[in-house]
Write a structure and sequence with these properties.
5 domains, alpha/beta, Rossmann fold, Glucose Oxidase, domain 1, 35 strands, seven-stranded parallel beta sheet
C-alpha cells in the first residue's frame, strides 16, 4: 500500500533533524506551516554529544557519566526534570534543557564533543504491489515468504493498532532476537512493537501518517478495501508477513530531533532489521551536525538498513534531503492507476481528468463551461452567474480555495474543473472535495482555456465518471513534488538513490482523524514512496539474512528500471525525459532485486574513510560510534572512490580514473562482460572488460577511466555501465560532471 498528498506549502519531508524536520507527505488540508506558539524561554533543549564514559560498564555507567556533565551546572532537584533523553546506541550523549550559561559550563567539561539545538518541526495498497510485480502465491513474493521473520521499524506518528491491516493471520511469532515491547491497543505477531518517545506516552496515531506508512510497508491482506468506492481491491503491504515495530516520534503537529534520536536508540536496542523514516529536513546540515545522519550510521553499523524519504521540495534542483551515503534515499513516482473522469466538450473532443468523488451520471447533459482570468482561482461570488455552470479554475493548493470550491458547488455550480499549475504539470495529486470537482493536468487546463476562447464563451461540457482505471500510460512518472539532486553535501554521490510509488497511494488510516473517516485513505508524498522500498528491503532480507545494508541497497539500485510501461524513458512531471537526479538509479523492481548477480558492498571502515576525507577527525569522532578508529589509521576515501553502486566521475583536463569492487552473489561460476552506453562526447574505458568468477562471495575490482575533449555547456552528462552475464544485468548510472 502507498500514498501521498499535496500540501500547498509542501511540508518538506520532516526527516533529517536539523534545520527543519517534517513527515514527508503532502497534506491537502494544510496551507501554511504551523508556527511554534510556545513563548521563548530561558531554557532551550539541546542534544549533547560526549565521549564514551571512562568505565564503559553498561547503561548505568553511561547515565552516571552523563549526569556528571550536569552536576556542577544544574541544581540537583532540576537535573532529572530537565534531562529529556539519554543515548547509548546512536551515540554517547543526552538531550537536556539548558540556559546559555549552563550550556557554556557543560561545554567546558572534559569529554564534551558537541551540542546541537533541538528543533521542533512539522509533519511532512490495493494496487502498488501488483504494479511492482508482486503477485500473490507466485514468483518473488512467494519465494521471499512475504517477509516472514523480518522486523521493520518505523519512526513516525504512531499506529492505529486496531486496523485490519495489522491482523496477524499467517504471521509467525517474532524471532528470538527481538528485545522490544509493545504498548498499543492491540499487539500481536504482526504488531510486535509500539512505543511512544514523546510526552503523550501513547503509541496511538492521531495524525494518520504512521498508520499509512506502516501498512504500506508491511500491512496484511485486507479484502474489499477502498476509499469511498475508488481504488477497490485487496489492500496489502509490500512485505505482508513481516513484523512491524512503531516508534512514535511525532505528534499531530511536529517532530523533535531529540525524540527521533530516542526512537533510533530504541529500535537499535530492540533488534529491528530495517528502519523506515518518512522524515526529512529542509536544509542540509553537514553530516557531523545532523543527529539523524549520526544516529542512522550507528544503525547501519549494526546491520540495519535505514530507508529515508528524499523530500517533497521538487522540482527544485539540489532540494534532496537525507543525503548521507549510508542512507537509502527514496524519490516518488506515479503508478498506472487513475480515478477517471471524462470531460466531454461541445466540439466532440474529450479530456481525461481524475476525481476521488465519483458521481453516477454517465449521461450527464452538457452545461456551460465558464472561465474567467479574473476569477481563475475560483474566487467567484455566490450569485446566479455560476448557477448550472461548470467552472474552470486553476489550482493554487490552498485551504481557502478548497473551502471556496465546496461552497461554490453547494451554491449552485454544476461542477468545477481544477487544472494544475505549471510547476505541477502532469502530476495530479488527487484531493477529495466531496463534490463534483475534476482535476486535470496543466496542459489540459491550457487546452480547455483555448477551447473556451475559440467558442467565445459559448463552450459546453459534460462530466462522465468512470471509476478506477488501470494501465494508465506513461507510468511511472517522476512527481513534481519529489525532491531532486544533486546533493549539496555530497555532489559526487548520486542522490536520490531510487524511485518508488508515491502518488495517490491507498493505505490504512485511523477511523477518525482530521483527514477522512474511513479505514483507508489516499495520500501522496515521498513519505509514501519510502515504505515501499522498506518493504522491498525486508523481502530481500528474508531471502538473504546475511546480506549487509550496503549489499541490499546495491541490489535494489543495480536492478532498477530506467524505462516506463511503454518501453520509453521514465519521464518527469513535464513529460520530458527524467534526469538521473530525478530518478536516482531508476525505479525499484522487487523481483529482480533479490537476484542481482553482483553487488557493491561497503563496510563501516569504508564509510569511516570517507568521513575522514570529508570531515576529518572531528567528523569521525562525531559520527562513527567506534573509539578504536582514527583518521591517522584509516585510508581517506574520496567521494568518487567510495564503492557506491552509482558512479560519478569528474571531468578534468586529463583522463580521470575511479575504481569499484564487486562481489559475486550469483552462480559460483559466472562471467560478466562490460557494456557502456554514454554520449559520443565521452571516452570511457573499463579495465578489465570481462570478469570471471569461480565461487560465490568472490570479489573483483575494475577501473573506469573517463576523458572528453569538452563537456560543452551541459552541467553533466550521463549514461550507464552494465556488467552482463548469461542471467544478469548489473547496471550503474555513470555521471560525468565538470571538476
Amino acid at each position: 500500500m502507498k500514498s501521498f498528498r499535496h500540501l500547498s506549502v509542501q511540508l518538506l519531508l520532516l526527516a533529517t533533524l536539523f534545520p527543519i524536520l517534517a513527515l514527508c507527505y503532502i497534506n491537502p488540508a494544510t496551507t501554511s506551516i504551523h508556527q511554534n506558539a510556545t513563548k521563548s524561554s530561558a531554557y532551550r533543549a539541546y542534544i549533547v554529544l560526549v565521549q564514551p564514559p571512562p568505565s564503559n560498564a553498561g547503561e548505568d555507567a553511561h547515565h552516571q557519566w552523563y549526569e556528571s556533565f550536569l552536576s556542577t551546572s544544574l541544581a540537583g532537584d532540576s537535573r532529572k526534570s530537565r534531562l529529556l533523553y539519554s543515548y547509548t546506541e546512536v551515540f554517547n550523549g543526552f538531550a537536556v534543557r539548558l540556559t546559555d550559561a549552563e550550556l557554556d559550563k557543560v561545554s567546558k567539561k572534559p569529554g564534551f564533543v558537541r551540542a546541537f539545538p533541538d528543533q521542533t518541526l512539522q509533519l511532512m495498497t490495493t494496487h502498488t504491489p501488483e504494479f511492482l510485480g508482486l503477485r500473490n502465491g507466485t514468483g518473488f513474493w512467494s519465494q521471499a515468504d512475504y517477509g516472514k521473520g523480518v522486523i521493520i521499524g518505523l519512526l513516525d506518528s504512531g499506529i492505529y493498532a486496531a486496523h485490519a491491516s495489522f491482523n496477524d493471520h499467517g504471521v509467525p511469532p517474532p524471532p528470538a532476537r527481538w528485545k522490544g515491547s509493545c504498548d498499543a491497543a492491540r499487539c500481536n505477531n504482526k504488531l510486535i512493537g509500539a512505543k511512544s518517545l514523546i510526552a503523550d506516552h501513547d503509541s496511538d496515531d492521531e495524525q494518520g501518517h504512521g498508520t499509512h506508512t506502516s501498512s504500506t510497508a508491511a500491512g496484511n491482506f485486507v479484502t474489499g478495501a477502498s476509499y469511498n468506492g475508488v481504488g477497490t481491491g485487496t489492500a496489502v503491504g509490500i512485505a505482508p508477513s513481516a513484523h512491524i515495530a512503531m516508534y512514535k516520534v511525532c505528534d499531530a503537529r511536529d517532530c523533535k530531533a531529540s525524540a527521533i534520536l530516542a526512537g533510533l536508540e530504541e529500535a537499535i536496542k530492540d533488534g529491528v532489521d530495517v528502519l523506515s523514516l518518512s522524515l526529512g529536513s529542509s536544509t542540509g546540515a553537514s553530516f557531523d551536525q545532523d543527529p539523524i545522519s549520526i544516529g542512522a550510521f550507528s544503525a547501519v553499523s549494526k546491520g540495519i538498513l535505514v530507508v529515508c524519504a528524499a523530500g517533497n521540495n521538487g522540482p527544485i534542483q539540489s532540494s534532496v534531503t537525507n543525503e548521507a551515503p549510508w542512507l537509502l534515499t527514496v524519490a516518488a513516482s506515479s503508478v498506472d492507476r487513475s480515478f477517471s473522469v471524462n470531460i466531454h466538450l461541445g466540439n466532440g473532443k474529450t479530456i481525461d481528468g481524475e476525481a476521488l468523488t465519483q458521481i453516477g451520471n454517465p449521461r450527464s447533459k452538457l452545461h456551460s463551461l465558464l472561465y474567467s482570468k479574473e476569477w481563475r482561482y475560483c474566487n467567484y461570488d455566490y450569485d446566479n452567474s455560476i448557477t448550472g455552470k461548470i467552472l474552470l479554475c486553476k489550482d493554487n493548493k490552498s485551504r481557502a480555495q478548497r473551502s471556496k470550491i465546496r461552497n461554490i458547488v453547494g451554491a449552485g455550480a454544476t461542477g468545477v474543473v481544477l487544472f494544475n499549475d505549471e510547476i505541477s504539470g502532469y502530476t495530479t495529486t488527487v484531493t477529495d472535495y466531496n463534490s463534483s470537482v475534476v482535476q486535470v493536468t496543466a496542459a489540459d487546463g491550457e487546452a480547455l482555456i483555448a477551447y473556451i476562447a475559440l467558442t467565445d464563451n459559448s463552450s459546453m461540457a459534460s462530466l462522465a465518471y468512470n471509476g478506477t482505471q488501470f494501465g494508465v500510460r506513461p507510468a511511472p512518472v517522476v512527481t513534481s513534488f519529489s525532491s531532486r539532486g544533486p546533493s549539496s553535501l555530497a555532489p559526487n554521490i548520486l542522490k536520490p538513490d531510487i524511485l518508488a510509488p508515491g502518488l495517490n497511494i491507498l493505505a490504512a488510516w485511523p477511523s477518525k482523524t482530521g483527514h477522512g473517516q474511513g479505514s483507508f485513505t489516499i495520500i501522496s508524498g515521498t513519505s509514501m514512496a519510502t515504505p515501499h522500498v522498506s518493504g522491498v528491503a525486508a523481502l530481500i532480507k528474508g531471502i538473504h539474512p546475511d546480506w549487509s545494508p550496503a549489499t541490499i541497497k546495491s541490489a535494489i539500485l543495480t536492478t532498477s528500471d530506467i524505462i516506463n510501461g511503454t518501453g520509453g524513458s521514465i519521464l518527469d512531471e513535464q513529460h520530458r525525459k527524467a534526469s538521473v537526479y530525478d530518478t536516482g538509479a531508476g525505479h525499484v523492481n522487487p523481483p529482480r532485486a533479490a537476484d542481482p548477480g553482483l553487488v557493491y558492498d561497503l563496510s563501516v571502515i569504508d564509510y569511516a574513510g570517507y568521513i575522514c576525507w570529508l570531515l576529518g577527525d572531528i567528523g569521525l569522532a562525531t559520527i562513527v560510534h567506534n573509539s578504536s578508529l582514527s583518521c591517522a589509521k584509516l585510508p581517506k576515501v574520496q567521494d568518487v572512490q567510495l564503492n557506491y553502486p552509482t558512479i560519478t566521475v569528474p571531468l578534468t583536463s586529463t583522463q580521470f580514473t575511479v575504481n569499484r569492487t564487486v562481489t559475486n552473489v550469483g552462480p559460483a561460476e559466472s562471467t560478466f562482460k562490460v557494456k557502456v552506453d554514454v554520449p559520443r562526447s565521452l571516452t570511457v574505458r573499463v579495465i578489465p572488460d570481462t570478469m570471471s568468477f569461480s565461487k560465490t562471495g568472490e570479489k573483483k575490482t575494475f577501473s573506469v577511466s573517463v576523458s572528453s575533449l569538452e563537456l560543452g555547456k551541459e552541467l553533466y552528462v550521463d549514461g550507464t555501465l552494465s556488467w552482463v552475464s548469461e542471467k544478469h544485468v548489473v547496471r550503474s548510472p555513470i555521471i560525468v560532471v565538470p571538476a
